[in-house]
Amino acid sequence: MLSLRKLTSLVFGYDAYDPLCGTLRAVDVPVSSADCRSCSDPCDLDHDVYPRLGFEVDRETPMLGTVKPYNRQIVISTGRSDWEREITDASGSLAASMAEVTRTRTHKTHHHSTSNGKSSGHAHGKPSRDSRGPAGVFRPSDSARVSTLNGSHRTICDEDDHETVLVFPDFKVVSEVRRSAQGAQDLWDSAVNPELDRNGAFLEKSPLKTWVLPYSCVILLCSHKRRDNRCGIAAPKLEHAFTKTLEAQGWEVDTELEHPSHTMGPPLEDLDITPEQREENISAQLKDSAESKRALIIKVSHVGGHKYAGNCIIYTPSGSGVWYGRVTPHDIESIVENTIVKGLVLPPLLRGGLNLSKPNCKSLNDW
Fold first, then answer.
1. Taking the complete model, does pTM exceed 0.85, yes or no?
2. Which of 81, 186, 247, 288 lies 20 to 30 angstroms, CA to CA, from 238?
3. Cβ burial 129-155 (10 Å sphere, 16+ → b, else e)
């Protein structure tokens, strides 16, 4: 049985059904005209469902524009899928140390910018004045804000007080980050500072080890139950649906980070090469990752917008980050087929994202 959305798109064309499609195409966002839902309503494919009671979702408010621009997003290893309501309240945590470093460094950047007569908007995480396109569709350069999340992955480090941090949109993993103020500062200086490009900084005597992530995509699912019970309910159901659907398409799916040295070789810091050669090496590794047909699924702390549960962020080696809301297990087959495999955005689910505008490209996966 065809859903109403699918029937309407076949008869009238997708733009007639949802003007978001035309809005996104106008700013070179590759979009799909496919239905988000792969089954009829009610479901005829035995998909998992959310409970009727206690899982009310806002289906009226437009979602596009509900993502606050950021320059980078980091995900810190904790081995847990739920956390304190505010992750920065956990004394001695890397999240707490990063909050202090970020606050101090952003203040210094703001002071430096204003003292030189430059606009201060960038330093406060606001979109730059020359930003184009709809709200929520942004570039890393539109903001200096660093978004910090806790993740369900365990550290790959031997030392218990050293964390492993995923860095996006760089698509890197940084290990040996001490759970301390100095560790947070080391991470900022080498990989997080908004003034750094995607290659990062490789500082002498730094204890950190960095690799390109060995995956075609990383899927982040908000599971922060103490912030909102709906996220705690949605995340495991979405993880199961993503795993089942991707594996059916011949993909390998990890819910724990494989040590990147197994597939990517020595860390970038250990390569005796010039900066130009390092840039070429990173680019080549990112393209290899894109072809690997491997996915990493991580549960993360509050990303905002829990009234749009389930919340999902998909990062790609090409540098795009797609934020989806109101995601249900019924939508996963379409997300995998259209967004992960084909690199196309599904407008009805889109909250926003970075590096979605791809002029002269047919897919988010294009370089």
1. yes
2. 288
3. eeeebbebbbbbebbbbbbbbbbbbeb
